[in-house]
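hey team, just a heads up i'm posting the complex here instead of the shared drive bc the drive is being weird again. everything in one block, sequence lines first with there labels, then the predicted structure for the whole assembly after. its two chains so it's a bit long, scroll down
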Amino acid sequence: MVTRASSSIVASLNLSLKTTFAPKFQNLGFLGHRISASPLVFPCSNNSKCCSRMLGSFKFSVKAASAEPLKDANELINSVETFIFDCDGVIWKGDNLIEGVPETLDMLRSKGKRLVFVTNNSTKSRKQYGKKFETLGLAVNEEEIFASSFAASAYLQSIDFPKDKKVYVIGEDGILKELELAGFQYLGGPDDGNKKIELKPGFYMEHDENVGAVVVGFDRYFNYYKVQYGTLCIRENPGCLFIATNRDAVTHLTDAQEWAGGGSMVGAIRGSTQKEPVVVGKPSTFMMDYLSKKFNILKSQICMVGDRLDTDVLFGQNGGCKSLLVLSGVTNLSMLRSPENPIQPDFYTSKVSDLLSLTAASV
Amino acid sequence: MDDTGTDDSRPQFLSSQNAEFLINSVDAFLFDCDGVIWKGDTLIDGVPETLEMLRSKGKKLVFVTNNSTKSRKQYAKKFQTFGISVNEEEIFSSSFAAAAYLKSINFPKEKKVYVIGEEGILEELELVGYTCLGGPEDGNKRIQLNSNFFFEHDKDVGAVVVGLDQYINYYKLQYGTLCIRENSGCLFIATNRDAIGHLTSQEWPGAGTMVAAICGSTQKEPIVVGKPSTFMMDFLLERFQIDTPKMCMVGDRLDTDILFGKNAGCKTLLVFSGPHKQHPT
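-- predicted structure starts here --
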């Protein structure tokens, strides 16, 4: 009863993943989907294993030793020059600040540490995140924030994406604002959430042939119109890029529960185009390479602090940084310790403010 | 690869010489619909006469479509509007396959099914007595992202069925995701994974889109009931008691129709009235 794909037929369907804009970073990587066993499972029809093209150097590194609970915070703090923080589940949960964060950030700054905030959440621009930090009483500069919305436009800039080409956006305001700031023309975004299609005989959906890239991120206004528009651009505009801000399966958009994440929207476009996106957000190291170049910092001098194994910790490991998992977000101790989990950070602790309380305790 | 005695290492172009041999060597023809019988709402030339000819030669005709937007009953009506007489029992849509699958595993009637898909799936599930949530109506539902809003979902949902859904929206993605992630043992069933759907004569995103969206948010793989999965074939074989080498699958897609036929050991005939416009290499 098991379905066996005829390899010659599947091979003949292997679609080309090349684009005409040559990215400056290498293509690579296996994202590592978990496949549940079932006799009727038929995987993606064009690939025998799902993969995304990740930017930067990607190793699916499996640490032999388990993560250590953080005890000597001083040693960790003294051994690095920069702390990169994820936001959702680390600094805040929804609109609520996590306890002890402001004092901890102040302590780190007072020790001369550089602080950077890297979030896969593409709904806001860096400027809008700057305002959120301000509302929560945290002194953070816009220049210290790297959202995946920013990463998408930084990526297009890095490959000299032509200003006369357009970008179709399946995503929210944050992406639109960052593209505009960088001088790119865009179509789509939240407004297209109101567009309906009428499937009558003779109805033909047009699309702009000048779209040279489709950027896909979290989109609460997701609908069939956008899927079709993005699909037509990718399939029919020669060389059109398919860029994903991130592929997070779920995300804490409110503090009460998990919400389907950007991985869902990106999955949809993968399903309709049978193409793999270029991923700019974590765990791709694009943002890591970008900020290490911008701030002139050595990756070995960085500690990545996050709540997700498959984005934050992998991001840190792929970049050759130290990694600290906090249990204040989506990951709990049993997930970390699960035999099915191959990703082990250097350290784990319950929340960011442990960096402060553990240093104070050892004084 | 199959045991017809012919050399099938290269596909043969159908000609007046081998067409008769093909027809005489099989007892049943399985037809895909979109791109084979019709394109959107337009009948493809010559189809009614051809089907009549095959019936007159005593051939069994079966219609196997991955399009889950209609039920078998609704498909029978569509055939009727083209002046083709086809019995509901001869039609196997992936909407029907989803219901047949749940029945085959004795899915409990007290459990509910959340549907990310259209009327066809709802109708088929209701016909076999299952309680459905979701479907086209949820296309009007919106979410609010503030700390006062909690997205509820029914803990009795034991299966999420995903098919082509032109009313897809974030609400449905979130509902299906929560059911699969949080309801213990909740099944994730895909009617099919076609990248392209045929809603008009233009190409539109297929069920593969919605299914991949749920794969993306749950990081799980679905049980696929439509082509090229052999579920429908096994069902047909049991129903009609015909050996697979005596069947010919006629379709326009290599990765669903032809694969479906080959997986089961049937003869296969690719027609160029669909997406493949020239000899595939």
